[in-house]
């Protein structure tokens, strides 16, 4: 077994022991099914508790299944991202703080194995949570609103996962270069927010931005077609991910462990 | 009101309630078994019990000591 | 045989020179203590030797060769060992063993051996979070030994322990030194005198004295006069510094230790002085300088 595998298995074991493998997927499921359920009940809730005068006809168009799922993804984009960042903020920094990172690196472990095992651990929990949550959301939408083709769900889920992978990779990076868990979360959220905002304001010039993944996701959901600029965004995102990972490894090498 | 209750697809709602319950119980078990939490333990137990969804999440993110 | 050689080792942090170009070597099979006051650069030196910290300049040779990654030859116990507190002692050792390139079976076997050896067999299934300081130190020792390192480096292995824990760890070190070379830092001179073969004394980023414990003691040993008074006699003690045969006077309350260049004449004159002045003495003893005296001399110089 390589050292990378040993470290990755340790990450998995840790996430089982500290219940991350339970609570993060559950949150994603709950966030995912809330939207179809509330869309379904909205007219009735208004009808029953809204106190509208007798005879008022509610002009509330029922959203399509794809629209509901888009809402779900935008919730993942806010609350899901927040939870992923908060749960991943200490991934390196906490181990540096406690000194246990030094205890690991004192054995002949490649610095890249350490960082990449952390990364793989983050990807595992992120992708599992997104997948389970999104499928649950799709199931509820089909049950309560209307059926959406699974193919679209699959495609949009894959594209959306690229954005979440980008977010957790960024978290890993800041967790490597900074020490305080709180500041890691704050800076990551800030950067993610800044990238999204700039991308949506300067859309024309930002076709390469990783944040466009959320737009491509919507496109696929609604029309089933991929926008032509997807490939560009995909390639730059992968390139940025590689650069972030390499710099994380290099910076980690320079850090003084065991102070 | 009755119509509303009858119309509820329980098959869809029950799993949601069960997940809420699992989340709360996991957080409670973790909190009670933990030797020390960030902040008073009794307060965390109250937060987990009475703030739906957010309470357990808050506990896992900031209440639990990850070391 | 020479196990490790450090040449012109320098470590700079920003503008401060923590280690200022030191040279020394460690013989295989010896137990070497690295002495020095806080801030002398001991930990920095040990970290460079362990491969965890890159020297600013200089080189470290291992068995006569420039080693690229020293970490596989070295077991290191940091001053404040940290663990995954959610793991059990056994789990941690197996994990660390696998990181040190043992396969799972070897790691399991070696962990059991070491747990037995450091007296943690009964606690092996408990979470490390519930271990006492002494237990953590012993687990730290076990993790350092897991891959049978050629050189065991221990940074202040006993300074944080209570007398009982300290005894345990020292006894373990005495056993370990039969099998492997040990380099440990300490500021407790008594420990160094007790178990080391060689000593290195560091001060302000430099090596002040090095050699085998016996030869260093021999070379730097000086006759010393210990006088204890019933009351303070500072005036007289200050005045005797002007005698040519007195090289150093240390005053501690009612006690004084005086290093003499010429014991034979010196003690006569001083004794006569005391009698003449009717100084009330309780004790007048002739002895040799200890490691502590040597250490104090180096640090004050």
From TrEMBL, chain A:
GO molecular function term, any single one: ABC-type transporter activity
PANTHER family for the chain: ABC TRANSPORTER PERMEASE (PTHR43471)
Top-level division of the source organism's lineage: Bacteria
Key words, A-Z: Membrane, Transmembrane, Transmembrane helix
Official protein name in the record: ABC-2 type transport system permease protein
Transmembrane segments: 21-42, 73-94, 115-137, 157-177, 184-203, 230-252
Species whose genome carries this gene: Sporosarcina limicola
Record's GO cellular component terms: plasma membrane
UniProtKB/TrEMBL annotation, chain B:
Membrane topology: Multi-pass membrane protein
Transmembrane segments: 12-30, 42-62
InterPro entries linked to this entry: CLS_N (IPR027379)
Keywords: Cell membrane, Membrane, Transmembrane, Transmembrane helix
A Pfam entry, by short name: PLDc_N
GO cellular component: plasma membrane
Chain ranges of the Cardiolipin synthase N-terminal domain: 22-64
Subcellular location: Cell membrane
This protein's name: Cardiolipin synthase N-terminal domain-containing protein
Record organism: Sporosarcina limicola
UniProtKB/TrEMBL annotation, chain C:
All copies of domain ABC transporter, residue ranges: 4-229
InterPro entries assigned to the protein according to its UniProt record, in alphabetical order: AAA+_ATPase, ABC_transporter-like_ATP-bd, ABC_transporter-like_CS, DrrA1/2-like_C, P-loop_NTPase
Pfam family, one: ABC_tran
GO terms for MF: ATP binding; ATP hydrolysis activity
Coiled coil regions, renumbered to chain: none
Keywords associated with the record: ATP-binding, Nucleotide-binding, Transport
PROSITE patterns noted in UniProt: ABC_TRANSPORTER_1 (PS00211), ABC_TRANSPORTER_2 (PS50893)
Keyword Nucleotide-binding: yes
CDD domains membership: ABC_DR_subfamily_A (cd03230)
The keyword Nucleotide-binding appears for this protein: yes
SUPFAM superfamilies in the record: P-loop containing nucleoside triphosphate hydrolases (SSF52540)
UniProt cross-references to PANTHER family, sorted A to Z: ABC TRANSPORTER RELATED, ABC TRANSPORTER, ATP-BINDING PROTEIN
Family affiliation: Belongs to the ABC transporter superfamily.
Name recorded for this polypeptide: ABC-2 type transport system ATP-binding protein
């Amino acid at each position: 077994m390589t050292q990378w595998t040993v470290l990755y298995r340790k990450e998995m074991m840790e996430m089982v022991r500290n219940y991350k493998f339970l609570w993060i997927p559950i949150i994603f499921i709950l966030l995912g099914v809330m939207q179809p359920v509330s869309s379904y009940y909205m007219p009735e809730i208004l009808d029953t508790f809204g106190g509208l005068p007798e005879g008022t006809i509610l002009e509330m168009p029922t959203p399509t299944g794809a629209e509901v799922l888009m809402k779900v993804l935008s919730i993942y984009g806010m609350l899901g991202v927040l939870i992923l960042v908060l749960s991943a903020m200490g991934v390196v920094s906490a181990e540096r703080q406690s000194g246990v990172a030094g205890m690991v690196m004192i054995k002949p472990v490649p610095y890249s194995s350490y960082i990449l095992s952390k990364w793989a651990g983050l990807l595992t929990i992120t992708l599992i949570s997104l997948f389970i949550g999104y499928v649950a959301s799709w199931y509820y939408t089909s049950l309560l609103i209307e059926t959406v083709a699974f193919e679209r769900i699959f495609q949009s889920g894959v594209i959306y996962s690229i954005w979440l992978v980008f977010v957790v990779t960024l978290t890993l990076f800041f967790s490597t270069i900074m020490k305080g868990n709180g500041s890691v979360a704050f800076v990551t959220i800030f950067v993610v927010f800044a990238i999204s905002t700039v991308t949506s304001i300067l859309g024309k010039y930002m076709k390469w931005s990783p944040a466009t993944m959320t737009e491509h996701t919507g496109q696929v959901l609604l029309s089933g077609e991929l926008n032509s600029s997807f490939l560009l965004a995909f390639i730059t995102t992968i390139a940025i991910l590689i650069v972030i990972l390499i710099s994380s490894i290099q910076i980690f090498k320079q850090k003084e462990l065991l102070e | 009101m009755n119509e509303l209750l009858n119309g509820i697809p329980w098959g869809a709602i029950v799993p949601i309630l069960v997940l809420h319950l699992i989340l709360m119980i996991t957080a409670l078990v973790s909190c009670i078994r933990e030797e020390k939490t960030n902040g008073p333990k009794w307060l965390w137990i109250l937060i987990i019990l009475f703030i739906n969804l957010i309470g357990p999440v808050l506990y896992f993110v900031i209440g639990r000591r990850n070391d | 045989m020479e196990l490790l050689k450090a040449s012109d080792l320098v470590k700079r942090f920003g503008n401060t020179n923590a280690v200022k170009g030191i040279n020394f070597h460690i013989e295989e099979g010896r137990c070497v203590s690295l002495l020095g006051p806080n801030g002398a650069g001991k930990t920095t030196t040990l970290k460079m030797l362990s491969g965890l910290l890159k020297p600013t300049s200089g080189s470290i040779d291992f068995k006569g060769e420039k080693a690229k990654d020293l970490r596989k030859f070295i077991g290191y116990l940091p001053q404040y060992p940290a663990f995954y507190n959610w793991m059990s002692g056994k789990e941690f050792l197996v994990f660390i063993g696998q990181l040190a390139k043992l396969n799972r079976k070897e790691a399991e076997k070696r962990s059991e051996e070491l747990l037995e050896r450091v007296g943690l067999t009964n606690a092996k299934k408990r979470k490390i979070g519930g271990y006492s300081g002494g237990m953590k130190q012993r687990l730290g020792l076990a993790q350092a030994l897991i891959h049978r390192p050629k050189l065991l480096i221990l940074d202040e292995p006993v300074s944080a322990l209570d007398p009982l824990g300290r005894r345990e760890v020292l006894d373990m070190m005495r056993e370990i030194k039969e099998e492997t070379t040990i380099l440990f830092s300490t500021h407790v001179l008594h420990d160094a005198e007790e178990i080391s073969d060689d000593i290195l004394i560091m001060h302000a980023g430099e090596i002040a004295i090095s050699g085998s414990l016996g030869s260093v003691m021999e070379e730097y040993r000086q006759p010393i006069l210990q006088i204890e008074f019933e009351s303070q006699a500072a005036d007289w003690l200050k005045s005797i510094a002007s005698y040519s045969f007195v090289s150093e006077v240390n005053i501690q309350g009612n006690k004084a230790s005086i290093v003499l260049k010429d014991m034979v004449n010196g003690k006569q004159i001083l004794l006569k002085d005391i009698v003449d002045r009717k100084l009330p003495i309780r004790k007048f003893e002739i002895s040799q300088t200890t490691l502590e005296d040597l250490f104090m001399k180096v640090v004050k110089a």
